[in-house]
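Journal club side-thread
Mid-discussion, someone asked how the predicted structure for our own chain would compare to the paper's figures. Pasting it here so we can look after the session.
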Amino acid sequence: MMKKTWQTVKKVFTILVAVIAVLVMVFTIISVATFNRNDRNLFGFKAFIVLSDSMSATDFSAGDVVFVKNVDPDTLQEGDIISYTSQNQENYGEVVTHKIRARTTDANGDPGFITYGTTTGTDDELVVTYPFINGKYQFSVAKLGTFFQFLKTVPGYIVCILVPFLVLIGMQALNTVKLFRQYKSEQVAELQAEKAEIAEERKRSEEMMAELLALKAQMAQNASAAAASAPAETESKPDPQ
């Protein structure tokens, strides 16, 4: 019973490790291909890793992943949250996800929005114009970005990808050795069974030979006895003359 339970636990553990390893690998491939890529989307969503706590007071924190969708900028309103590519000097080129405070225009008269982070309430330095808007915020997944960033490090790769696959390889190697030993054991058992069968056949042959020899000796003895008694019977007959 214990052996059967252990086999079941080991099987479940192997499947679980395999599933986790595959899922992590798939997640890594998808995240590398889509996270923080304005030109890529996943099921219609763009995904960006939050880099600061500027919105942690109300919506999401550093290390979360926000998912946004393309919208017509003219449909955006005060209070909406948008992701945009920053043109500010201190974080130029980074994707920022902030809340809209109001509609406005920039120095060139182009339409845009005044945005701010809810943690400080301070307006962003520059007006966010339409060309730099990546999409409207839909939802977020807590700490998914932190996990992804960890995966990109050497320790993360070792812990989350390499180690599970090494465990699977090791377990398969152990199973292979076990199967090989079982095969050899079965071969030895078959050889022993064949030897026992041959020995049994030999024993039966020897017994049959002994019986034949005994029968032959008995027949010879009977023949000798018959031959010995035949002259005596002849001498005892009277002479017919």
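Post-session note: The two ends are 100 Å apart (CA to CA).
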